[in-house]
TrEMBL record:
<dbReference type="InterPro" id="IPR008984">
    <property type="entry name" value="SMAD_FHA_dom_sf"/>
</dbReference>
<keyword id="KW-0804">Transcription</keyword>
<feature type="domain" description="HTH luxR-type">
    <location>
        <begin position="140"/>
        <end position="204"/>
    </location>
</feature>
<protein>
    <submittedName>
        <fullName>FHA domain-containing protein</fullName>
    </submittedName>
</protein>
<dbReference type="Pfam" id="PF00498">
    <property type="entry name" value="FHA"/>
</dbReference>
<dbReference type="InterPro" id="IPR000792">
    <property type="entry name" value="Tscrpt_reg_LuxR_C"/>
</dbReference>
<dbReference type="Pfam" id="PF00196">
    <property type="entry name" value="GerE"/>
</dbReference>
<keyword id="KW-0238">DNA-binding</keyword>
<dbReference type="InterPro" id="IPR016032">
    <property type="entry name" value="Sig_transdc_resp-reg_C-effctor"/>
</dbReference>
<dbReference type="InterPro" id="IPR000253">
    <property type="entry name" value="FHA_dom"/>
</dbReference>
<dbReference type="GO" id="GO:0003677">
    <property type="term" value="F:DNA binding"/>
</dbReference>
<dbReference type="InterPro" id="IPR036388">
    <property type="entry name" value="WH-like_DNA-bd_sf"/>
</dbReference>
<feature type="domain" description="FHA">
    <location>
        <begin position="47"/>
        <end position="96"/>
    </location>
</feature>
<dbReference type="GO" id="GO:0006355">
    <property type="term" value="P:regulation of DNA-templated transcription"/>
</dbReference>
<keyword id="KW-0805">Transcription regulation</keyword>
Length: 204
């Protein structure tokens, strides 16, 4: 399953393969063209960024190499490596040549894409908007089923595979309330499970 963010796409199926091996969680944070914030958890290593459909984060731009760069984990520390890309990878404005350790708030630039590295300790999910872009499938799906902004927000979390407990934390509600909201969304979209909802969303 791919989640589209306009001109970049998060491949959730690839992220499900493999487990996070360290105790510290890391995220990539970026801005959409409309200025809204998105974040995604790096929960599989290596985490590949590139134009190829097998990338964990697909960057839809002809200037990006098919496998442009990757984030790897070495002894509880994460590093970024350029994968011999055509146009290179910048870290904090400098072209990287060898694997380079990533720190909180480092800025990664790949062609016209910019991402900021965040640890779980440095990111408040409640202040971030995990969403898709104006032309994303979520908006057409939302219009079809007349979803409210709150339901659209909930849908954006569900299609990313975020747990009910974490959704509750993000939305400032209890896990029980989050579960009720999910059940109402399933009923509104005439589905009976998360999997059925995601399948219907993907086929929209």
């Amino acid at each position: 399953m791919e989640v589209n963010y306009g001109n970049f796409t998060l491949n959730r199926e690839l992220q499900k393969v493999g487990n996070l091996m360290n105790n510290k969680e890391f995220f990539l944070e970026g801005l959409q063209e409309d200025g809204r914030v998105w974040i995604t958890k790096i929960d599989k290593y290596p985490f590949i960024l590139g134009r190829g459909k097998s990338s964990n984060l697909v960057l839809s731009n002809s200037s990006v190499s098919r496998k442009h760069a990757e984030i790897i984990l070495i002894k509880d520390e994460i590093f970024i490596c350029d994968s011999q890309s055509t146009n290179g990878t910048l870290l904090n404005g400098r072209l990287i040549k060898d694997k380079t350790r990533l720190h909180d708030k480092d800025v990664i630039n790949i062609c016209n894409f910019e991402f900021r590295v965040k640890s779980r300790e440095d990111i408040d999910l409640n202040d971030q908007t995990i969403i898709t872009g104006h032309n994303s499938p979520i908006n057409s799906f939302s219009s079809k089923y007349k979803l409210t902004p709150r339901e659209e927000e909930l849908l954006s979390y569900l299609v990313k595979g975020i747990s009910t407990k974490e959704i509750a934390s993000i939305m400032f509600i209890s896990p029980g309330t989050a579960k009720n909201h999910i059940l109402k969304l399933l009923k509104k979209t005439d589905t009976h499970s998360r999997l059925e909802l995601i399948t219907k969303y993907n086929n929209n």
